[in-house]
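Sharing a chain and its predicted structure for anyone who wants a worked example. Both blocks are below, sequence first, tokens second.
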Amino acid sequence: MEWWEIFKEWFFSLGEKYNVNPYIFGGIYVGAIPFFFLSLGWTIKNIKKKKPIVLPVLLTGFFFISAYLYLIVVGKNIPVWVYVFIALLIVYGVYSTLKKIKEKV
């Protein structure tokens, strides 16, 4: 059995084990990417024009964590380390997004 087949079998078994549809998770994850960058651009544009940034910042954050929100809301018996990993991803995402904003402004 090829490594890719082993990985796929393991990955899809996680969906069943934790009550999460991997296709939905992946669809949200990939589907949110363009919206994340659009809202990030909107945030940067508003900062440069000294306009309110609350809505674009909230949307940027939402699109960044949307797939993880699905996992948290729908998932069952998710190990604690997954929540820690999600928290670390969010902290890193906030840091890198703020860094991008500062570079563009």
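Comments welcome. Residues 40 and 97 are 8 Å apart (CA to CA).
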